[in-house]
Write a structure and sequence with these properties.
Number of domains: 2
Strand order of the largest sheet: 1-2
Oligomer: single chain
Helix content: 55-70%
Distance between the termini: 37 Å
Largest sheet: 2 strands, antiparallel
Structural class: mainly alpha
Strand content: under 5%
């Protein structure tokens, strides 16, 4: 079943609002909302995600930003920060790309962090 079809707005919001839901299910609902939710919910969740990333991984610096201001990270930097092999990072990104039909892995060299 396609990822988008696994949830709807009501079910995802109910899971996110729950104080007792299992963390994996909560993360899946948030992921669905970021990809498919209304713009105001997407923006709120992306802002919260960005804040959590900065707080949890203060040494992780984006390599560059997309035209709409989204941070992009090098696989090597993610692997080092998460303390997992680069191959695992690539596998996760490939799986998410397949699941969401969005290319999360940019294989070519990316510009310096100074380029926005």
């Amino acid at each position: 079943m396609e990822f988008k079809a696994l949830w709807d707005l009501e079910s995802a919001m109910k899971v996110v609002a729950s104080e007792t839901v299992e963390s994996k299910l909560w993360a899946e609902a948030v992921e669905w909302l970021i990809l498919n939710g209304p713009p105001e919910i997407k923006e709120f969740l992306l802002d919260a995600s960005s804040s959590a990333t900065v707080k949890s991984f203060p040494d992780l610096e984006p390599s560059y930003f997309t035209q709409d201001g989204k941070p992009c990270y090098k696989v090597q930097d993610l692997a080092k920060t998460l303390k997992i092999p680069e191959a695992d990072v690539r596998a996760i990104l490939h799986e998410k790309s397949r699941e969401h039909d969005i290319d999360y892995l940019i294989e070519e060299d990316i510009p310096d962090a100074a380029a926005h």
